[in-house]
TrEMBL record:
<dbReference type="Pfam" id="PF13751">
    <property type="entry name" value="DDE_Tnp_1_6"/>
</dbReference>
<dbReference type="Pfam" id="PF05598">
    <property type="entry name" value="DUF772"/>
</dbReference>
<feature type="coiled-coil region">
    <location>
        <begin position="224"/>
        <end position="262"/>
    </location>
</feature>
<feature type="coiled-coil region">
    <location>
        <begin position="136"/>
        <end position="163"/>
    </location>
</feature>
<dbReference type="InterPro" id="IPR008490">
    <property type="entry name" value="Transposase_InsH_N"/>
</dbReference>
<keyword id="KW-0175">Coiled coil</keyword>
<protein>
    <recommendedName>
        <fullName>Transposase</fullName>
    </recommendedName>
</protein>
<feature type="domain" description="Transposase DDE">
    <location>
        <begin position="424"/>
        <end position="489"/>
    </location>
</feature>
<feature type="domain" description="Transposase InsH N-terminal">
    <location>
        <begin position="5"/>
        <end position="97"/>
    </location>
</feature>
<dbReference type="InterPro" id="IPR025668">
    <property type="entry name" value="Tnp_DDE_dom"/>
</dbReference>
């Protein structure tokens, strides 16, 4: 065997391609967080840790402990780390510390793909798929159970704090370590830490239930507009009834004056009811008050969570999501935007099991990444499945060349299917898709985006390792970065000889 470990691998090996690409990345966001005054221990070079992550993730190794083990027995890892064993806690802290900087790598790798002319923007497709969170379905709790958990944790924390204070006072009084009939009071600190963590997660889960009960901005706008129409209608009806009754009162007063002038008394009939006692007007005023109260509630909604709504105590940001093959899983709704050859333009975690409200955020994120990566050309066609059909989305994205199935994907693609009537507000999209050109363009959707998910799940699996929205977002961004990175190196000629 050669004495130099760098001579053990051929020039076309993955580790050399990783190192070549890392040299092209701007790592200033990582490096500026380290002190350069000579104090403290020497940190691992960020380029080395990033190359190690890209290399191991490309091989499907995502666990920090398995990456640490690979630094022993994987020659590529030994070359990248210069024969140093990187501890798993070092990797975990690096990922946690540099989440924002790691997210920026997605755009940088996408930019490299664009500069090599690999990103074809003639058509892109949006799709979503569930992925399992690092949480258990059994950890879901209803609001009442969460309140009980919060109360119980607070009681136990209070009791432990009292024990700690009593222990400290007894030690101070005796001048030595107090002896008890059980464990030392200092042993309660790990339990106290776990209880505080559980209490924080229970509070977060309760907050998530209230947030999810809130209607979306689009729903609020629709309800406010409907309430404003009802208020305007009630005001108009009240004004009409009041004007008609006022006319009656005027006519009666005119007849009374005419009869008095003519000397006729008692021939005026029964006088009309006063304005404030007229039944129709009282009813209309009551209705107007109710409509205005409805409008106020629509503008400032304060809905309570459903008694059946649940949040996960392990990872409050995760949701119960319908699985692809039936049933439910505890996870996240991952959204991707794919160009041709499955280059990812965006990858995000959507906070709703439904795709309906994900289209606008994904389009905006894709446009942001397109501009940040300075990809040449504009996106010529956007494609999305029937799960994204929404009149609000169509209105907001009216200036885009967008095709979204509004009935069924099979029907819009031109395959035999049961005809369905397009919902209100979606007829224009249905008419566009009904043309031969629209059908031909929409047939590209599945071939663009569905292999993208297949490739991601085949390499990384269908599970996440981190918990919490920010950590999950950084993790899936890293998965997307590695996905595009492997597309890049498969189209990059080898430089080593």
């Amino acid at each position: 065997m050669p004495g130099d470990v760098r001579e053990w691998l051929p020039p076309e090996h993955l580790c050399w391609k990783v190192l070549d690409v890392v040299e092209l990345l701007d790592l200033s966001a990582f490096e500026k967080s380290y002190r350069d005054d000579g104090r403290g221990g020497v940190a691992y070079p960020p380029a080395s840790l990033i190359a190690l992550l890209l290399y191991c993730y490309s091989k499907g190794v995502r666990s920090s402990r398995r990456i640490e083990q690979a630094c022993w027995d994987d020659v590529g890892c030994r070359i990248i780390t210069a024969n140093r064993r990187v501890d798993h806690s070092t990797l975990a802290r690096f990922v946690r510390r540099h989440r924002a900087a790691l997210n920026s790598l997605f755009v940088q790798v996408l930019s490299l793909c664009g500069r090599r002319g690999l990103v074809d923007l003639s058509a892109v497709a949006v799709d979503g798929s569930p992925i399992e969170a690092n949480a258990s379905r059994d950890a879901n709790q209803r609001l009442q159970r969460l309140e009980e958990t919060i109360s119980q944790c607070e009681k136990e924390i209070h009791a432990l704090m009292e024990d700690a204070v009593d222990h400290a006072l007894s030690v101070e009084a005796d001048g030595s370590e107090a002896q008890g009939d059980g464990e030392d009071a200092c042993d309660n600190w790990p339990r106290l830490s776990r209880l505080c963590d559980r209490l924080a997660r229970a509070h977060l889960a309760r907050d998530r239930l209230h947030e999810r009960a809130m209607p979306s901005p689009t729903e609020i706008r629709i309800k406010v507009e409907a309430a404003e129409r009802m208020v305007a209608r009630a005001e108009k009806r009240l004004a009409t009834e009041a004007e008609a009754h006022q006319e009656k009162l005027k006519k009666y007063e005119l007849r009374v004056r005419e009869d008095r002038a003519a000397g006729r008394r008692g021939a005026n009939g029964r006088p009309p009811v006063p304005m404030e006692h007229k039944t129709v007007l009282v009813r209309q005023r009551t209705r107007l008050v109710k409509m205005r109260a409805w409008l106020e509630r629509a503008r400032t909604p304060r809905p309570a969570p459903s008694p059946e709504a649940r949040a996960c105590l392990s990872d409050p940001d995760s949701r119960l999501i319908p699985g692809k093959c039936g049933g439910y899983l505890q996870g996240y709704n991952i959204q991707i935007v794919c160009a041709r050859r499955q280059f990812l333009l965006a990858i995000e975690a959507h906070d709703n099991p439904s795709d309906r409200t994900a289209l606008i955020p994904m389009v905006k994120k894709t446009q942001h990444n397109h501009q940040a990566a300075r990809l040449p050309g504009d996106i010529q066609l956007w494609l999305a499945g029937s799960g994204y059909a929404s009149a609000a989305s169509f209105e907001a994205l009216a200036d885009l060349p967008l095709l979204v199935s509004v009935t069924s994907d099979a029907d819009q693609a031109g395959f035999p299917a049961k005809r369905q009537q397009a919902p209100a507000g979606q007829q224009d999209m249905a008419a566009r898709l009904a043309t031969p050109t629209g059908r031909a363009q929409y047939r590209q959707r599945s071939a663009l985006v569905e292999p993208g998910f297949a490739q991601i799940f085949q390499r990384f699996g269908r599970h996440l390792n981190y918990r919490g929205r920010q950590a999950v977002d950084a993790e899936i961004k890293l998965l997307g970065t590695v996905h595009n990175f492997n597309k890049l190196i498969n189209h990059t000629p080898e430089k080593h000889s």
